[in-house]
Design a protein that fits this description.
47% helix, Ferritin, four-stranded parallel beta sheet, mainly alpha
């Protein structure tokens, strides 16, 4: 854990030298999209070993292993141009949807509002090389990183309106323990944030898994919606680190933008675990999708 902590700290120190990265929120956002691609690539390596027909949704040249893994690879203006123009251009426009290309759907959802803040390709190469010292294929190191990831989320508390990002682990764990979701039940967080409730629910239900069929059921048990790009990116990465292969059921959007009357009986869930962002103001017109006796722009969820 101490080694991982030092790696993340050294990455943040490098980012502080870059003129384009301003403040904790941008540093965490920058770190997270890089982490996402490295974690995604590590999980793809596992899938390539276990599934003969596995095909990556990411174009070959854009996969982490082909542009980032080599410490002596592209750097400087060449790296910066590749990331800003080629990489982001490709990932933001991946085709498919949650049914036909779920992995591509996840990647596109993560990158549709993501941004490369770093202006120095040499410093970006330093960050990438430091990140490559973490081996996400080692189960022990992945387990340790889960704890470190919690620390990264807590750091958001110093980056602004932290309440919309992070609910303390003790609170999420207590609520999940009391609600006690069962394997096979559908668990929803309509204001997912960084995925704390869903992660706790996953770990709670995983204790009920005894075979591959039950693990397959677990993979489909959770769902969520997150309005803002940074917590959505953090959430998807968090879920992958906790064993959800394709977190396509957690979408980047606004739960409240869909009128209540549009929901059908087939979309009902068994468990709702959430900490809605009280105090926020929705855009005009959102409240029209809800019954007049519960209509307000300031807090539509209670």
């Amino acid at each position: 854990m101490s080694n991982l902590s030092s790696v993340i700290k050294s990455i943040q120190d490098v980012m502080r030298q870059d003129s384009g990265v301003d403040g904790d929120a941008q540093r965490i956002s920058q770190l997270t999209w890089l982490l996402f691609l490295k974690v995604f690539d590590a999980l793809e390596e596992e899938l390539e070993l276990t599934r003969d027909s596995y095909t990556s949704p990411i174009p070959e040249a854009m996969r982490w292993r082909n542009w980032a893994a080599d410490a002596e690879g592209i750097t400087g203006e060449t790296l910066l141009s590749f990331v800003n123009n080629d990489l982001f251009g490709a990932l933001k426009t991946l085709g498919g949807d949650a049914q036909r290309n779920p992995r591509g759907f996840v990647v596109r959802g993560v990158f549709e509002d993501a941004y490369n803040y770093m202006k120095s390709g040499h410093l970006l190469r330093q960050v990438i090389n430091k990140l490559n010292t973490i081996d996400f294929n080692r189960q022990a190191e992945r387990h340790q990183f889960n704890d470190l990831y919690e620390k990264i989320l807590k750091d958001l508390q110093s980056a602004g309106n932290a309440g919309e990002f992070y609910t303390p682990r003790a609170v999420t764990q207590f609520m999940v323990d009391i609600v006690n979701p069962q394997l096979g039940e559908k668990v929803l967080d309509p204001a997912t944030g960084t995925g704390g409730f869903l992660v706790c629910a996953i770990e709670h239900m995983r204790k009920q898994v005894n075979n591959t069929e039950q693990e397959a059921v677990l993979q489909t048990c959770i769902g969520g919606v997150e309005k803002k790009q940074l917590p959505h990116m953090l959430c998807v990465t968090n879920l992958m680190l906790h064993g959800i292969e394709v977190p396509s059921q957690v979408v980047h959007g606004n739960t409240l933008a869909r009128p209540l009357r549009d929901y059908t009986a087939a979309e009902r869930v068994d468990v709702v675990l959430t900490n809605p962002p009280f105090g926020g103001v929705e855009e005009p017109g959102i409240e029209q999708g809800f019954p007049s006796d519960v209509r307000t722009q300031y807090c539509l969820v209670s």
